[in-house]
Amino acid sequence: MLGDLDITHADEAWPDCDVLIENCVKAALAHCQTDTQHGRPFELSILLSDNDQVQDLNREYRQKDKPTNVLSFPALECDEPGHLILEPGPLHLGDIILAYGVVAQEASDQKIAFEDHLSHLIIHGVLHLLGFDHIENEEAEEMEALEIAILKDFGIANPYG
Question: What is the arithmetic mean of pLDDT over 50-69?
Answer without folding.
Answer: 96
